[in-house]
Design brief:
Blueprint lengths: L1 H28 L5 E7 L8 H8 L6 E7 L2 H8 L5 E6 L12 E16 L13 H4 L4 E4 L19 E4 L2 H9 L5 E4 H10 L2 E4 L7 E9 L5 H10 L2 H8 L2
């Protein structure tokens, strides 16, 4: 009957939900969080984290993973305001703008080598000598905007004294530069395919820091077995290079 089919269909959903709840309760009782909230900084390609998530699945626990994106101090702010349990790939310098909890722990993920790039049609593209600060100031800079909500905003890759276009992530930054909207510092690994295709041109800088320290962080007060597992993995050199895209 129609009523019987409805009962059968809804009953299956109820049984599945009950089974999932039972598994979650067993997992929590053994120290695994029911959910872990991971913020991946916009400087990291999200797909670089997927292999780590597949490895986490092998632990066969019922912890649900929730991934979100933030930029610069926004990642640390999410951790400080208990909107995240773990941060991957954030800039350590951003913590200077926050009043973080005493239980914040951080580790070095690695270093991102950056390159100054412009579109092939940009005025600086055919310049044979290293680009000076004065030359940079004559052109617009493309930068990643800070997603922090309650702290003074900072921006990634802003070239002092230049007009600036703010974008949400690295992919948008590369696209804007490729369209000739400005110049910017981007991770070399991400820029390499575009440089090879002739879409972007790498320029040598006369004076500039081209290395960014990337970190991961967590709060000890929020740590269960899932957070502890990820922290252990993020300390592994091979996994670090994989996440950084090296």
């Amino acid at each position: 009957t129609v009523a019987g089919r409805t009962l059968l269909e809804q009953g299956r959903h109820i049984l599945a939900a009950a089974s999932n709840l039972e598994a979650a309760l067993k997992s929590t009782a053994t120290g695994w969080e029911s959910e872990i909230r991971i913020v991946v900084d916009s400087s990291i390609q999200i797909e670089n984290v997927f292999a780590l998530l597949q490895k986490f699945d092998e632990t066969q626990n019922s912890t649900q993973v929730r991934i979100s994106r933030e930029s610069l101090s926004g990642a640390w702010e999410a951790l400080a305001e208990d909107r995240a349990d773990l941060v991957i790939g954030a800039s350590f310098e951003s913590t200077e703008n926050l009043r973080l909890h005493a239980d914040l722990q951080t580790g070095i993920l690695g270093h991102l080598e950056c390159a100054l790039v412009v579109a092939a049609k940009h005025p600086l593209a055919k310049l044979s000598t290293p680009v000076t600060s004065n030359q940079l100031r004559q052109h617009r800079s493309i930068s990643i905007g800070d997603s922090g909500r309650n702290v003074p905003n900072i921006h990634s890759g802003v070239l002092t004294g230049t007009a600036t276009l703010l974008v949400p992530d690295v992919a948008s930054k590369i696209a804007a530069i490729a369209h000739g909207l400005g110049l910017g510092l981007v991770p070399k690994k991400l820029a390499a395919p575009f440089i090879k295709q002739g879409v972007l041109v790498e320029k040598e800088l006369a004076q500039a820091a081209n290395q960014v320290t990337s970190r991961y962080g967590w709060r000890t007060s929020n740590s269960g077995k899932a957070v502890a597992w990820f922290v252990r993995q993020l300390g592994d050199a091979e996994i670090q290079q994989q996440i950084l895209g090296n």
